[in-house]
Structure formats: structure tokens, C-alpha cells
Amino acid sequence: MTESHMPNGSVRFDLEDGVATITLDRPETLNSMNDDLMQDLSSALSEVEQNQDVRVAVITGEGRGFCSGADLNNAAETGSDITNVTPAFSDSDFFNPALRSLHQCPVPTVARVNGVAAGGGLGIALACDIQIAVRSTFFVATFGPRLGIVPDMGSTWSLPRRAGRARAMGMAMLGERISAEQAADWGLIWKCVDDENLDSEIQMATETLKRTSPDAMLRIRQSIDLASTNTFADQLTTEMEHQAVLIPRNMQEGAQAFLEKRDPFFDGTRS
User: In CATH, which of 2.40.110.10, 2.40.160.50, 2.40.30.20, 3.90.226.10 is domain 2-209?
Assistant: First the structure.
């Protein structure tokens, strides 16, 4: 296993057997976001993009929290301008670029939600392909009712697509805490699990994902993202275009594995 901290020391990067684990490492603030953390997140995602040995990436938080949103406490303590550290700064050099990199990651991404995901932390979790959360935690969009701003970090894109307009509006305007169990029932996340089962569930998911074709996983993400705006006919065309690329690469191995009653083996080649 290789383990390292990113340049600012706010994110840890571990790679073992094809699984990159990216840990937000500011546990004293429940892994709240500042420029250092978001720059480090971008650096870790760049490692994933450049390292062909990575087959799946897991995003998680150190300690009790996944990510508690923007670091407002630091600004208050230092007397700095609060407008520079609220979620409105997501257009800065580090915030939105990190979210774009996460959403466009060339391998499947899994949010290991080990604790609260609030504000921008909700955006980070929802930017991943799959979310697995402990039963004891909750999700909350604090932007509107508590800060008087619009949800950002991609939340206004992710929430209605995952949970529907009514629930997205309720979360954004009322700022109520949504339990992990409720989030799973709504389709906001993939799965809610007992706290003691989190690591085993993550391992099962990553074992499956690291055996898949990275190119197929990327094209699945792209297809599903387009589905909410495509017409039915357009979506059929999208599927056909992806199949035209993937069938020559993968179908023979998939069919052969089916006939031989074994798991298929796809190499990690990325397009």
C-alpha cells in the first residue's frame, strides 16, 4: 500500500490493490472545506487520473465527519472577511475545479459517508457515482435558510436529479436534516448501512467495481447524466453510440465468462 498526504496536508491519499482512498483530513473541524483542502482534493483526483493502476476511488472523511461544509469558524477567529470563505466562493480557483474533477473522474467514485455531510459536503458526496452512508449520520443543505445563499458545489444539479424537484426544494429552502435512511429511501444515496458494516459494504462495492471496465463505467455515468435532458430517441442514440465502442472491446470477454460461469476480467485500459 502507498500512502501520502497532498501538498497542503489536508487530504490523505492511499492506494492499495487498485483502490484509491481519498480522505479529507481536517477532523478537528469535521473536515470542513477551505482552499487548502479543496486544492488537495484536486491534487488527489489528479493522482487518480494519472495513475492507470487505479480502478476505483473512495472519498471519505477522517474522524466523526464526512464533510461539514465551508470553514466559517476559521474566518470568525482570524477576523478575515467572511465573504471570502462562505460557500459563495465555490467559483474560486479550487472549489468548482475540484467538483468538476470529481464528477468527471475516469474511474468509478464511491462516497464513504462516515459522518455528517452538510452544505458543500453534501455536494461532494452527491458528485460521486455511489454513496454508502452510516445509519447514524445525516445530510443537510444549510445554504438557504442559514446563510441566505444558493446551494452550490453542484447541489442544485444533483439534488433534483436524485431525489426529485419537491424534495430538492424542501432540502434547499427548509434546511432540514435528512437521515441516511431517509436519503436512501428517497434515492438521494445508494445505500444506508449499520455503522459497524460500513467498511465491509465499501469493500464489497470496490471489489465489484475494480473488476469492471473503466471505460464502460465512465460511459454509464455519461449516459445516465444525459437521460434527464435527452428525448427517448436521443437516449437510444446515446446508448447505441456507447455500445458501438464497448462491444468490440468487452463483449467477447463478458459472453465467454457467462458461458464459463466465471467473473469476467476486463483490463484497466481507459479511453
Answer: 3.90.226.10
